[in-house]
Every structure is written in C-alpha cells, then in structure tokens.
Design brief:
With 249 residues, this protein is of the alpha/beta class. 35% of the residues lie in helices and 18% in strands. Strand 2, helix 2 and strand 3 form a beta-alpha-beta unit. The radius of gyration is 19 Å and the shape is elongated.
C-alpha cells in the first residue's frame, strides 16, 4: 500500500528543505498569507527548481487535515530519489545502458505505466523533471503495479546538463517525435541510449529536444493519429529490448 506523505508547518518544511530536499515533489504556499519566513522558503524552492504554487487556505486544510499548517505544506515522494552520481556509477561498464526520460508527463497513470514498461524491458534508470512532470506519488506507484520498487529514479536539479553529460560520454539521445522521427527499426537502439518521451500536451520540451541526437516515431495506420504516451513508450521500449536481445523477438 502506498500513501502520500505531507509535511506541513514552517519549521518542519524548512528542515525538510535542508536535510531531504530531493524527496520533495511539490510545495504548497497559502496565497493570502504574507510572511518573511514563507518568502524565504519560496526563494529556496525557486533556487532548487522545486515545483510549487500558491493555493487557497482551504486547499492546505484539505492536504494537511489541520488548521495548523502555518501557510505551507510539502508533498514528498513515496520512495527516495537516487542521486545522479549513484546512477552514473551503476551504469559504468554496462554494454547497453538505457535511461528513460518521461518529460512533461502530467498524468500519474501514464507515468506509472511507463515505469512498468521500463522495468519490463530492461531500462536501468528513469530521470524526471523537477517541474511539469507528475511527482512520484502514491497514484504513480499504484499505476506501476509496484514496479517502481524495481527501478532507479532520479530527479536532478539540471536535467538538461545531465543529459548533455551522457551525450558527451557517447550516449545516443533519442527523442520520440511523431512529426520528425524515423521508424524505430532504422535507428540503432543498442548501446548506450537516453530515450526521451514527450508529455501528453507539451510533447518534448524545447530545452530537452535540442539535446537529442536523433528522433524516432512509430509508423501507424492513417486512421490513427497518435498513440497514448504510455502505449508509445511500451512499443519503443520493446523495440529497444529486441535490438539488445534482452527479450524474445
């Protein structure tokens, strides 16, 4: 059973930002409460690229189940995020390392399904944005059917720089794009690969699209314009596994 953890109150959230910042998925500030302490915590969120927004006091009451929230609440991930250095060490020496980047995936059900496919087809790690992507919450964990326990997930502060770093070490950075991509069988998906998937509404954000070394698309019948992002991920991850002979053809 997965349950979302919510920490509230100025001092508890301040301590969370100091000691477990990477576990924070989203911070909520009361929109009508003015406080120097709250403003300082908001500055930290901006500096660390943490997702946050201003909400009515009733929303904070709903989240915390208390009137003593002091104008702030932080929602934490159901599992700790890995450090990017830890991921890079794990990938050293692997012949076919595969990193999946589900960028701007807003629906928890889609993100959970992508995680499930990533585990099924041998992905080594998942990298998430700190903003614009569904957090690693209970809904995502449940949608993954528990597979989130079997995948290393990181949420680096500067995702663009991390991906460029992998590209500099010889990784192919492949973006899924229906308009300008080539069929998957024409792209070499064996070897070190970063596979970037675009969100339901935004697609691959421009700052990540420019890191791509190639683009892939799934050929379909003319009656179908596009696949759901989770379905597309499953197809592309299967093809990646097929090329690597990780799973049966």
């Amino acid at each position: 059973m997965y349950n979302d953890q919510v920490i509230y109150g100025i001092h508890p959230v301040e301590e969370l930002l100091k000691s477990r910042l990477t576990s924070i998925d989203h911070v909520y500030f009361e929109q009508d409460r003015k406080s120097a302490q709250l403003f300082e915590l908001m500055k930290i969120c901006r500096k660390e690229r943490l997702s946050y927004n201003l909400v009515p006091e009733t929303k904070l009451q709903q989240l915390t189940g208390s009137h003593r929230h002091q104008g702030i609440a932080a929602q934490c991930s159901v599992l700790p995020y890995a450090d990017i250095d830890e991921i890079e060490k794990r990938l050293q020496g692997k012949e076919h390392p595969l990193i999946v980047v589900p960028a701007s995936i807003e629906d928890p059900g889609n993100l959970g399904a992508i995680i499930r496919s990533a585990v099924a087809f041998g992905a080594d790690a998942l990298l998430l944005e700190r903003k614009h992507t569904a957090p690693l919450n209970a809904a995502v964990a449940k949608s993954s059917a528990g597979m989130v326990e079997h995948l290393t997930v990181a949420r680096p502060k500067n995702l663009e720089a991390v991906i460029k770093g992998f590209a500099g070490r010889g990784y192919a950075v492949i973006g899924a794009d229906m308009k300008k991509g080539r069929p998957p069988q024409e792209i070499r998906l064996a070897g070190p690969v970063v596979l970037i998937l675009g969100g339901e509404h935004r697609g691959i954000p421009p700052y990540l699209s420019k890191t791509c070394t190639d683009f892939v698309s799934i050929p379909m019948c003319s009656a179908v314009q596009s696949l759901n992002v989770a379905a597309s991920a499953a197809v592309l991850l299967y093809e990646t596994a097929r090329q690597r002979s990780v799973t049966a053809p």
